[in-house]
Amino acid sequence: MSNKHGSNISPNLEENRRRFINSFKNSVDLLFRELRFGKTNKGFLVYLDGLVDRQYMSSSIIRPLMACQGSEPILSMDILQKDVLCNSAIDIVQVFDQAVQGVLSGQTALFLEGVEEVLLLETFGGETRNVQQPETEATVRGPREGFVERIEVNASLLRRKIKDQKLRLETMNLGERTHTKIYMAYIEGIANPKIVGEVKRRLQSIDIDGILESGYIEQLIEDSPQSIFPTVGTTEKPDKLAAKLLEGRIGILVDGTPFVITVPYLFVEAFQNPEDYYSRPYYASLVRLIRYLAFYFSTTLPAFYVAIQSYHQEMVPTSLLISMSAGREGIPFPVIFEVLGMGIVYEILREAGIRMPHTVGQAVSIVGALVVGEAAVQAGLINQVMVIVVALTAISGFLVPPFTGPASLLRLYFLVTTSFLGMFGWLMALLALVIQLLSVRSFGIPYLSPIVPTNIGDLKDGMVRFPLWFMLSRPSLLSPYRRQSTKNMKKSLRRIKGS
Question: Are the C-beta atoms of residues 228 and 405 closer than 8 Å to each other?
């Protein structure tokens, strides 16, 4: 017998065992556990070693079954499910392929002689990483916990932040071979139903062999793959994800990775940090403006240096120009080659510092920068000002981690245009970049909003961060439900002051 989902479970134990062995081709991690319980019942458990908690399986499955010795025969899985086993989650399936998929997902399958059903018992286990502070999003003030590779753990971390029955976690499996579990998280009544439907449609349209990390999904669902700027965000922090869901965004949790996707993702989000909202707004706004300035430095400072040295010496004070010219005396290369060479050296040192072990990587980056920079100056290959420009560019790039990749590409982009046309080339390159950004969308939302198109109400959390009591509504383009519980915050403040 068969149906549209595959062949049915056989009532013969040996037939089911043979089909499992054939499906896994005698894989060494496929284990069987023979069982005899009741008066005449025979069965077996099948699971994959390393994916289950053996101690939990013994206490919640094997021990209750062994306690049935001498009792009446058990003729149905329903009796086992309701009267014998004490598992927290049990599924009954009639299709063999579903049983195989359950075992692959870390469940234990219980087969019974003469019964054409299988119990899939939750016994998830194996070695996992503990919840700890994420290295990519370190904060001084705020929660220190971060997501891990287990999607169930990540879902529980999110539930602890948002204790609302309207928080929806819709599940699906992606990848023809990997069957990676995906959770789509959003808050019903806050998230825009149209965006929720569009995210679900894009996820369901993914047709690929495997999803090994959330980066696969990022590239398959983004609006503008031709843009160097990310239109899909990621985070390792539960509090950051919770804040985005409360604004009307959608999160995508992927099993096997601590990086959670958030959509829509806008340009201004790269300059926001969860710590901005845990401290007073004045210093938080100053730091945010510094991030914008740092991004500007990291993308255009080398280009400005080339333009001034090659085309626009009149823009520099005379004393400084004399000092810069004296520093370049004896250097055999044009300024453009000097900047390109140092840029390549910087990228090599940065990549080496990232890829090598943590302690060794720091030493390589520091020693490499000092030794290479000093030796290059002493050899007359570069001047001291060039070292300052590269150092300031590198440090500025670290202030906006989401744009580290785009900043490297933009440096080269502006550098090439200014090397040919000076500041006129930089201006044309900037105009072309702005025009391109104006055409970018993230799930239908303009990428530069709320700056362009300008929305005065949403600018309160743009380049600066207004006080929390002033932020009375959600971003208008993200959520059609504008009202927030913070509308009563002013009244609370007045009561506190009055008391």
Answer: yes
